[in-house]
Automatic annotation (TrEMBL):
Residues spanning the membrane: 9-30
InterPro entries (alphabetical): AB_hydrolase_fold, Hydrolase_4
Protein name, per record: Serine aminopeptidase S33 domain-containing protein
Tree of life domain: Bacteria
Range of residues in the leader sequence: none
Record domain Serine aminopeptidase S33: where: 80-190
This protein's UniProt keywords: Membrane, Transmembrane, Transmembrane helix
Pfam families, per database record: Hydrolase_4
Length: 282
């Protein structure tokens, strides 16, 4: 029995190392499935909230597949300015209609899209590069098809949508402004906060980075950050860090007791008035 003990230790050690490496490979190849949770079921459409809309399908010009497309809703308003709405990682355009209604009530046209993998858009599972491409395609639709000047476009992004909005703004510094709600500094920072993967070399494995904190420093357009102090998914301190990192003009609105998905509701009149004044200033 004693002679078997070193062999047992060796076997356990080898199995532990192999398991560790298998998990590392899994984190490398499947990390987008730990970030994106696509929702295909659209429960509400704009007409249910009293907003006439046009359904739009956008195809990728360099795609060989007819099914490679994204779905969007164009909600016309009285203003010549447009709010380009980008939803989070586990929602779809139907889930952002509360924001759309808020902006539409202020007179703005609203443009919402679903990234590939979400809603009625094509089924390819999303990744960082892909959602950036989807946002770029949708932005070009506004400029080229709708003939809307970039300085008349305000990009709103919630949670992961905030990171996509920031990336889009780095490519189009001429846009009118940004509203970033309940978003994060980077995926690496989120991993550090959640602490699930502390024993793994995340710095080496991570390729879905969404490194917003490195990008906001170069932005020049007016930016409004909003966040709830009771957010248990994305710490409110991350919006504070984004705010501190970006140059003027900028604003930060913290809503007491609001969680990740109810900043607008918990913010009430203060939130509505801040949004209104920010948009009027552009």
């Amino acid at each position: 029995m004693i002679s078997l003990f070193p062999k047992a230790i060796l076997i356990i050690t080898v199995l532990t190392i192999v398991s560790y490496l298998v998990i590392c490979v899994g984190l490398l190849w499947f990390q987008n499935r730990l970030i994106f949770f696509p929702s295909k079921t659209i429960e509400k459409t704009p007409d249910l909230l009293g907003m006439p809309y046009q359904e739009v399908w956008l195809k990728f010009p360099d795609s060989t597949s007819e099914s490679e497309q994204i779905n969007g809703w164009w909600i016309p308003g009285d203003s010549d300015m447009v709010i380009f709405d980008l939803h989070g990682n586990s929602s779809n355009i139907g889930g952002n209609l509360g924001y759309a209604k808020q902006f539409h009530n202020l007179g703005f046209s609203v443009w919402l899209i679903d990234y590939r993998g979400y809603g009625c858009s094509s089924d390819r599972f999303p990744c960082e590069k892909q959602v950036y491409e989807d946002a770029e395609l949708a932005f070009n639709y506004l400029v080229n098809e709708r003939q809307i000047s970039p300085n008349k476009i305000v990009v709103f992004g919630h949670s992961l949508g905030g990171a996509i909005a920031i990336e889009l703004a780095t490519k189009h510094p001429e846009i009118a402004g940004l509203i970033i709600e309940s978003s994060f500094t980077s995926i690496l920072d989120m991993v550090k906060v959640k602490k699930q993967y502390g024993i793994f070399p995340i710095n080496w494995l991570l390729h879905q980075k969404f490194d917003s904190i490195a990008k906001v420093r170069e932005l020049k357009m007016p930016i409004l950050f909003t966040h709830g102090t009771a957010d248990e998914l994305v710490p409110a301190s991350m919006s504070e860090k984004l705010y501190q990192a970006c140059p003027e003009p900028k604003q930060l609105l913290m809503i007491p007791d609001a969680d990740h998905n109810h900043v607008k509701e918990m913010g009430g009149d203060r939130y509505q008035e801040t949004i209104k004044k920010f948009l009027e200033s552009l």
